Amino acid sequence: MHGLLKLLFLCLLVCCTSVAAKPQIAIIIDDIGYQRSDLDMVRLPYPLTIAVLPFTPYGQQSAQLAYSQRKDVMLHMPMQASNGKALGPGGLTHDMNRVDFTRQLSYALQDIPYAIGVNNHMGSLLTELDQPMSWLMQYLKQRQLFFVDSLTTVHSRARYQAEQHGVTSLSRHVFLDNDVSEDALQQQFDLLIRIAKRHNRAIAIGHPYPETYRFLQQRLAELPELGVELVPISAFLPEHHRVIAAGFTAPAIAALE
After folding, report:
1. Rounded to whole angstroms, how far apart are CA atoms 119 and 124?
2. Tens digits of residue pLDDT in 28-65
3. Which residue of 1, 6, 79, 154 sits 20 to 30 Å from the alpha carbon of 138, by its own alpha carbon?
4. Cα–Cα distance, 22 to 201 (Å, whole number)
5. Burial class of residue 134 (count of CB atoms within 10 Å of its CB; 0-12, 13-18, 19+)
6. In which region does residue 107 sit, left (phi positive, over 0), alpha (psi from -120 to 50) or beta (all else)?
7. Residue 62, CB half-sphere, CA atoms under 13 Å: how many?
8. pLDDT tens, 178-237?
9. Torsions phi, psi of 146, nearest 5?
10. Residue 256 has what pLDDT?
């Protein structure tokens, strides 16, 4: 009898381990907020992570809808690019002093309800600079928010500064839709799955393009057959990170002025 119980326990342990070891992917949908059609992407019945641009026509509505569907919401924070491309409203630039930088970030977070973290919109110039990345991480630490580096440059200093200031940070592995052709989308999706199976987890970034919407609508339903699980980005946070929604809270910048 004792031997049978031991065998059953071992079988249960193996089954639980197998379930826990199932590769996981998180897909962040950037650039949400400008188009009404972005709401269709938010409505997809899968745990996509919704990264919303501040001060956009459908930003708050998109964030509220995502939250109502128990999806993770992030602030998609505009940051200066090396190509000089226009940032849109609320962007962070290299020539800001610390007070202006922090105030802009605070206002952006106030604009997007239920944000639990931040990732960068563009930012190929700003994320290479230690000083603004240090200011960013100090503020995120104060607000108990995490950062996902979109890695728009291989020389990003965001991860380093996050480590210096004790901020939880993650990094993008795959861009799904730089090319929105069916073949290119499939290639990037396959790459995402391979990375997840090799390292147990992987993070992709996509956008609310019609082609991406149709692709995800079809392919996400096939994940169980591939042995991969789609999870919200918060599933990749360490246990010690307490998730706190940041939207509609008072800015904490007085100490910096």
Report:
1. 13
2. 999 999 999 999 999 999 999 999 999 999 999 999 99
3. 154
4. 9
5. middle
6. alpha
7. 35
8. 999 999 999 999 999 999 999 999 999 999 999 999 999 999 999 999 999 999 999 999
9. -105, 170
10. 32
Give tens-digit pLDDT for 140-165. 999 999 999 999 999 999 999 999 99
Type of residue numbered 27: I
Instruction: Judge contact between 106 and 251, C-beta under 8 A.
Output: yes
- Indicate if the alpha-carbon torsion angle 30, 87, 159, 117 is positive or negative: negative
d(CA 184, CA 16): 36
Residue 5's pLDDT is: 47
Q: Is 79 helix (H, G, I), strand (E, B) or coil?
A: strand
pTM of the predicted model, to two decimals?
Answer: 0.88
Joined together, the tokens standing for residue 141 give: 């630490």
Question: How far from chain centre, in Å, is Cα 106?
Answer: 18
Residue 172 CB neighbour total at 10 angstroms: 19
Amino acid letter for position 235 = A
Q: What is the DSSP string of 15-66?
A: HHHHHHTS-EEEEEEEEETS-TTHHHHHHSSS--EEEE-TT-TTHHHHHHHH
